Amino acid sequence: MKNGCANYITTLTIAGSDSCGGAGVQADVKTMSALGCYAATAITAITVQNTLGVTAVHAVPPEIVAGQIRVVMDDIRPRAVKVGMVNDTATIIAIADALKDYDVEHIVVDPVMVATSGSRLMQDDAVEVFCKQLLPLATLLTPNIPETEVLSGITVSDKESMDSAALRILQLGCSNLLVKGGHLEGKKIDRLYGEVEREYVGENVVTPNTHGTGCTLSSAITSFLAQGLPVDEAIGAAKEWLTKALRAGADVEIGKGHGPVNHFFDPIKMKICPSNN
């Protein structure tokens, strides 16, 4: 504790920048801030995108990505880290090597491979390195159905195939896996596998404003983990919060495509906790 002062609850997001502000680092910072956390960032890539889609991706040099992580970890000491968009092999290795040097209690990995618009965001040759280097560090991995299929090599069409895919991914080394079932027909059910198994039935909010929902959910989970909730409860709290954010932004028009959720429908004051030291 410095000069007798308490600390903010700190988080770090390692992700790409979204120029229209609805996904990526911008969504992560908004989410973490709205939930009362102090959010630090490490930018992995700059995307050229708006609500209609992604037109270009420019990767930040791996040594700069690693440098951002290290200066934040050495100084601010985040309680939980979220890893989002990483689109190339060298950056994945740089992130994994940097994180391995620190005792991070929670690492949430959101394997951002495909944008809401359908644009591919991770290079094909990076997937194998992602599975070997970064995935085993994850307290929680949060793929959607297309990402689950890429990671497992199994086509997911129902609960049985989801279970099979989840088992194969868990064998790669992550502690917990949340498969988001939004792409399947019928009731929208997300399933948690690993140390605790649980199902989450989500409300279907009818809205075009779904840009960045995956980023927002994973950063909300990271925020609740930083605040001390166990994994299954952090997911439940994050999903409930995201549903409210979707409802609050359902009828708001931003851009000509998929708009963002309303991250600040009910912001929480910055939370104070005992020193991280």
Rounded to the nearest angstrom, the radius of gyration is 17 Å
Query: What's the number of extended β-strand segments?
Result: 11
Topology order in helix (H) and strand (E) letters = EEHEEHEHEHEHHEEEHHE
Strand order of the largest sheet: 4-3-2-5-6-7
Please give the alpha-carbon distance between the first and last residues. 6 Å
The share of residues in extended strands comes to 15-25%
Shape: globular
Biggest sheet details: 6 strands, mixed
Oligomeric grouping of the chains: single chain
- Strand pairing plus helix content: what structural class? alpha/beta
What keywords describe this structure?
single chain, 277 residues, alpha/beta, 35% helix, six-stranded mixed sheet, 8 helices
Q: How would you characterize this protein structure?
A:
This protein has 277 residues and is α/β, with parallel strands linked by helices. It is 35% helix and 21% strand. The chain is built from eight helices and eleven strands. It has helices spanning 24-34, 62-75, 89-100, 126-134, 145-152, 159-170, 213-226, 231-248; strands at 7-8, 10-18, 38-50, 53-59, 80-83, 106-109, 140-141, 176-179, 189-194, 198-201, 272-273. The strands form three sheets. Strands 4-3-2-5-6-7 form a six-stranded mixed sheet. Strands 8-9-10 form a three-stranded antiparallel sheet, with helices on both faces. Strands 1-11 form a two-stranded antiparallel sheet. Strand 6 (106-109), helix 4 (126-134) and strand 7 form a beta-alpha-beta unit.
Condensed summary:
The chain is of the alpha/beta class and 277 residues long. It has helices at 24-34, 62-75, 89-100, 126-134, 145-152, 159-170, 213-226, 231-248; strands at 7-8, 10-18, 38-50, 53-59, 80-83, 106-109, 140-141, 176-179, 189-194, 198-201, 272-273.
